Amino acid sequence: MIKKIALFSLTLTALLSAAQERNLKNIKKLTFGGDNAEAYFSPDGKNLTLQVTNKQFGVACDQIYSLDLTKSISGFQDLQLVSTGKGRTTCSYFMPDGKHIIYASTHGADHACPAPPKPKDGKYLWAIYPEFDIYMADKTGTIVKQLTNTPGYDAEAVVSPDGKKIAFTSIRSGDLEIYTMDIDGSNVKQVTFGLGYDGGCFFSHDSKKLVFRSSRPKTPEAIKDYKDLLAENLVAPTEMEIYTCNIDGSDLKQITHLGKANWAPFFHPSDKKIIFSSNHHAVKGYDFQLYMINIDGTGLKQITWESEFNAFPMFSLDGKKLVFSSNRQGAPRETNVFIADWVDTDEAEDVQTTNMKKHISYLASDKLEGRLTGSKGEKLAADYLEKEFKKLGLKPYDNTFVQPFTYMYRTNPHDTISKGDAITGHNVVAYLDNGAKNTIVLGAHYDHLGFNEHNNSTKANSKGEIHNGADDNASGVAGVLELARMYSQNSTKENVNFVFALFSGEEDGLMGSKHLAATLKDKVPHVSAMINMDMIGRLDEKKSLVVGGTGTSPLFPDVIEKNKPAGFSITQETGGVGPSDHTSFYLKDIPVLFFFTGTHNDYHKPSDDEEKINYYGITNIIGYVARVVNELATQETIAFTKTKINAEKKVPKYKVTLGIMPDYAEHGDGLHVDGVTENRPAQVAGIKEGDIITKIGDCTIKEVYGYMDCLAKINTGETKIVTFIREGKTMTVNVTF
């Protein structure tokens, strides 16, 4: 990212979210009010069994019902009671004949509903009722067999697709473990043995494996908490991961490593993927979405987008339908059952994290010596990028992939007389011709600071040190390469052409993008938009992402909002002018978007290395960009708008620096400090990362331009009182500029 300062100037509805749920078609609501969950298909896919609480109809706590999918469904009256209507039930499942259902119930011990657990020390808790035993009933509700009769919890029973086994969770060993038994209840065998809650299991379609959720506490404190709660017949289901194993317990594997609550897993019909519910993405609050993941733990993909609760997914045996529970389309606190046609999407369109790690690792390696424009390292990088484009079968832009350009650059900042040195840089540009009317440019710069020959480092005395620029901007380059792979290798012919542009000379003043923008409109069909990715590799804990340029087209704000990844905090900034290559295209009246995860302590330092990249973040951001591009590709036109920031606000000239890296998002309460440069005035005075600067002297600061206005009034050598907020407290320091 070029070293300049610039200002980057909700609700999801069913209509907006539906466009993103590409695997789900013809979503239909099956229940209407109350709390309805854990709906599972009969073997022939014509019926469901589910648990229902609906006080309006006298169902005080969970009871088991069946639902005939071949008939018209309009309300509670279409449900057929299967359980006794006494006690509390859970986890029903069809037997192989489709005529009997197994479920767990407390009615054998007490006909009253057992009291639900109350939160303890602020923890959300599940009750492990010791009265639960597993029963088998016919569809009229007549119990034909009790399958378990041991002290303590026996529940969560499911049947293998081959009809030979039942798997369930039991506390008979003293811990919550998974067991199997033959279909008649005999031959009980323990499957799991690790301390923790192992439960909610399901069989693979070939009946050879189990997938389940597990808490598996590791630390002494977590183990104690788990055991203490279990002694009270409680578990805290807030930290669970997905595991698989063979039905005899062998080949145990942890599939997810996401943190928080990952649960309700079910095998995709291929048995090569797992669908599950998770809130790992949520920064705060209650938000569960369905995700898909490969059985080797790769390829995490979000499936649902609407509402804040989606769980209990199950595929029909033929794989054509998915049933799940959700809070969508209902009153507050309602959970209803939904059914949808399942559509397997093109796997070529799934973002591959391994590809991005490969690209970033090479581009940010010492071998490329920091990729300074015009250097040997830049040439090595350009060769690599050209080869990657050729592998994808893309066409060169304007006859060749590599586009040289020359500019004059003064490496001595005090030289105001000479024209500087001539530098030749090399853009690497590819073209995907879909024969469409419009063209979208996807761009990022690949140059960086080299050995700090051009004095752009934020680390003092760093000449001779390699500045690898993993985030700035190998991250954005990897994003462009991955999008190029997705759009060139998928089975869809988008209604738009693509230019994949990788710029050099950005760090010296947007030189490469200026060169391309000057000729672009003459070389390719109508350019409807340019999307720039610069520094997208360091997503923070709050999952904060700035999207700039949203004011350059009236289409952009809604498109950005409705396509955002779950849990992300998106700051939309309207300005078309910013500290990166999209500016060059905005100045040619092209609508632009700019994706940016923010500066950090390693910005423009030798420490901006590959191992610090947040690959979860960059994977989600590239998926986000792809969703935005897919929607823009359907537009006949994308209107261009001049932004107020560009038209009305000029950057003031200033003679001094404070030596900080600002948070470019507009917070309104001052300038948020993202990082502090060593041995510069701010660091010397004691200002730290995370501080919020509100005043310099008597000059008030609310955002980046206010900060620049204040600096413009100060001369070298002056001392001013700088006011800032740290951890909620207002503080002051004397700063000599």
Strand-helix topology:
Layout: H1 14-18, E1 24-29, E2 35-41, E3 47-54, E4 59-68, E5 79-81, E6 89-94, E7 100-105, E8 126-127, E9 133-138, E10 143-146, E11 154-159, E12 165-170, E13 177-182, E14 189-190, E15 198-203, E16 209-214, H2 220-231, E17 234-235, E18 241-246, E19 253-254, E20 262-267, E21 273-278, E22 289-294, E23 301-302, E24 310-315, E25 321-326, E26 336-342, H3 353-363, H4 376-391, E27 395-396, E28 402-409, E29 421-432, E30 439-445, H5 470-489, E31 497-503, H6 511-523, E32 527-533, E33 544-548, H7 556-562, E34 569-573, H8 582-586, E35 592-596, H9 615-632, H10 644-648, E36 660-662, E37 671-676, H11 681-685, E38 692-696, E39 699-700, H12 704-712, E40 719-726, E41 729-736
Parallel strand pairs: 30-31, 30-32, 32-35, 33-34
Antiparallel strand pairs: 1-26, 2-3, 3-4, 4-5, 6-7, 7-9, 8-17, 9-10, 11-12, 12-13, 13-14, 15-16, 16-18, 18-19, 20-21, 21-22, 22-23, 24-25, 25-26, 27-29, 28-29, 29-31, 33-35, 36-37, 37-38, 38-39, 38-40, 40-41
Helix pairs in contact: 3-5, 5-9
Explain briefly what this protein structure is.
This protein is an alpha+beta fold.
Give structural notes.
Keywords: Signal. This protein is an alpha+beta fold. Helices cover 17% and strands 31% of the residues. The protein contains 12 helices and 41 strands. β24 and β25 (321-326) form a beta hairpin. α3 (353-363) packs across α5 (470-489) and α5 (470-489) crosses α9 (615-632). The longest helix is centred in the middle third of the chain and has 20 residues, at 470-489.
